[in-house]
Amino acid sequence: MSPTSPRRAAVLGGNRIPFARQFGPYANASNQDMFTAALEGLVARYGLGGERLGEVVGGAVIKHSRDFNLTREAVLGSSLAPETTAYDVQQACGTGLENAILVSNKIKLGQIESGIAGGVDTASDAPIMVTEKLRRKLLRVNRAKSTAEMAKKLLAIRPTDLGIETPANTEPRTGLSMGEHMAITAKKWGITREAQDELAAASHQNLAAAYDRGFFDDLMTSYLGLAKDQNLRPDSSVEKLAKLKPVFGKGEGATMTAGNSTPLTDGASAVLLGSEEWAAEHNLPVQAWFVDGEVAAVDYVHGDEGLLMAPAYAVPRLLARQGLSLQDFDYYEIHEAFASTVLSTLKAWEDEDFCRDRLGLEKPLGSIDRSKLNVNGSSLAAGHPFAATGGRIVASLAKMLHEKGPGSRGLISICAAGGQGVVAILEGA
Amino acid sequence: MAFDYGQFVSSGIGKQLATTLGLPRPSRLRRHTLGGSLVPGEVLVAGHGDAPVAERVRHLLADAGVTVASQPSTSVAGVVLDLTAIETAADLETLRGVVGPALKVLAPTGRVIVIGRPPQTATSVAQAAARRAVEGIVRSVGKEMRGGGTANTVLVAEGADTGVDATIRFLLSGRSAYVSGQVFSVSAPVADVVAPADWDQPLAGKVAVVTGAARGIGAAIADTLARDGATVVAVDVPAAGGPLAEVANRVGGTALQLDVTAPDAGSRIVEHAQARHGGLDIVVHNAGITRDKLLANMDADRWGSVVDVNLMSILRMNEALIPAMNDGGHIVNVSSTSGVAGNRGQSNYAASKAGVIGMTAALAADKRVLDKGITVNAVAPGFIETEMTAKVPLATREVGRLMNSLSQGGQPVDVAETIGYFAWDANRAVTGNTVRVCGQMLLGA
Fold first, then answer.
1. What distance in Å separates the CA atoms of residue A258 and residue A282, rounded to the nearest whole number?
2. Which among B236, B257, B271, B280 is the top mutation candidate for probing chain A, defined by the most A β-carbons within 10 Å of its own β-carbon?
3. Where is the active site (chain A) (predicted)?
4. Residue B242 and residue B389 in one domain
5. Burial degree of B275 (CB within 10 A; 0-12, 13-18, 19+)
6. A216 contact partners, CB below 8 Å, separation of at least 6
7. Which domain holds residue B106?
8. Given this model, what pLDDT does residue A129 score?
9. Is A50 close to B234, i.e. CB distance below 8 A?
10. By the number of CB atoms within 10 A of the CB, which of A1, A183, A319, B208 ranks highest?
11. What confidence tens digit (pLDDT) does each residue in B234-264 have?
């Protein structure tokens, strides 16, 4: 490690395409198409045409095998200099934020001067796989040395081998869907239907208000005719949400509906980061500093922790490292995988037993001022194309902190499949 | 594919049919190319009396490497006639005597430029009549010309002869391909006239803002200003963000998404231009919308939105833009021939676009603008081939295309070239003008 303390990494701005519902306007757009579009909007906004950046880090949760070099291909299809390096990362819904941590770390260490962190996901243009039996038999056909052998191998395929599989939102080790996992956690923490619907309605109302005041004018670039997040319902209300039937959980206690869970969406986002010097050379005002990030994982398979509870562990570790309390923030961006995820996390931090037994803290982290939570809407309203969510949040929060002024602070928390959670702190510049 | 009259009459049976029936056959226009010559051939320069401007033009052409002829030879690419010294209508015989024979040897895409003085400052009634007559003759010549040629009048105020060069260059060049039958007024320069080091980069080092830049004419303006050396800030509404980004990246500029009708639109443009590009030299107010309806059926929303976007927003934005613009800058507004001639179903649009003409003239004479040496001009496009006009029904579209002296629609780049000319620092003696880019459309003045 260098003897001098690392320099700061700046968030200079971001761009995303509006998020579309599955099989909506982006039904025929590939991950590469969407991520290229997100990059092109960013390049245009910040005048990066022909520029060689330190690196572009992207990725997608659901990816075709042909897209092994997804991010590099997107860079080559963009207006950035082709000499810009790129690589893919996949950490489920934490991908985008993890990428921002990676790029900011390299900037802090002086390894690069600038970089783009982002992510993309399509729930529409999903890869299709054949059954495992058929796949093995087809590989054998492919290996055949003669036509006769090929025919023989082909004849080995039985009608029962036929079938296709698409990626499922299911945990491989438990066989439960993410919603089913969340339902268990929500029940454990006693999260009410009303509280969830309130959070969902607020998400829609906040996002709509943000659009109305032009908040997204320099955060978004229209794509394929879509100029706003398709999932947004500005007229959403607790009353309307209360009419929806539960979709996850069973019986009387079921509280999770399509309204207080994020829908499957398509979209892409990208965030521009750089050193202070690089920003000044390019006449780009610093919006926020990327202070620090932390990743945690929980044992949801054999242990009794909830699948999406890892951020509850990551945040206190990050706070301790930075010498901050949970209340030292102007904004909280807690990704709304489900309304109950946000509420369970907040409740855990308020819970004495959880904080003592699970986090090893003397006293609970405490409550947050709910008026500082997801003030411009979050995933329930905007949608959640898995790897694109981190970039959406980092760019929006950086802008909010810039408006708030130097020294303001924001906390990001994103839960991810596999029992992981990625969190970060930004400081206004 | 849509039927294209111009292509049809240029090929085989179409050509025969058009000749037999005496239908118009559009010629290929000469357009500006990087590194190309100013004008492809000799230019005949003549004048009446002591013809002070003619001498200037000869020098200008010599500098540009163009051969100057004093007598029509076998073929000339252009005619420049200096009538600034005429006293009475009898002196117009000079024009007949020079331009008449020259038209017979004028090459395709030829140029006729007649230089006069403004009738308003004539010293006698007879001189005023003669000066005004020039415009009528030149407009007629424009209608008589064939082969994609154009004819324009340049009125140079007394004592403003040194400012004429930019306009002569523009009119002889391919940049003025679709400009014909127009009157250009040259007055005392509002700031020092600065010729560019390279005439292929007349906007080098300048920062230009173009509103409505995502598509059509706006995108062509961004392309053209960037080609000529400017750094372009491409502005359009967030809903047009995708195509806007494409334009900004194509021209190596930046995209700024905003609605020009937002109260802070002007200050946001200033902030962006200053923070990111260190200042602002050129503003092109191109953003515009149409909401056509007969006046009898026009609702307040259609009326108000068109007037607000096309006219009021410019006035509002200028309040922030003008104080922030660099001295010696240029404002160019986009009007329309609908604002000159009116158009059925477009009373709202015509109101806004005619308003732009009035605003242009008044702002050019405004103290705040004069003190900073900023020029203010407008272009009024006629029928231009864009996605918008491609949607016009066939018959209406063909009439629009053909009802002009060049028998064809203009290209977006033609509008952009005239805007570029208004933005040259070499062109600080032309202000308050509205020039139509319409191929001398038959409707209107």
1. 44
2. B257
3. 93, 384, 415
4. yes
5. exposed
6. A210, A228, B238
7. 38-186
8. 76
9. no
10. B208
11. 999 999 999 999 999 999 999 999 999 999 9
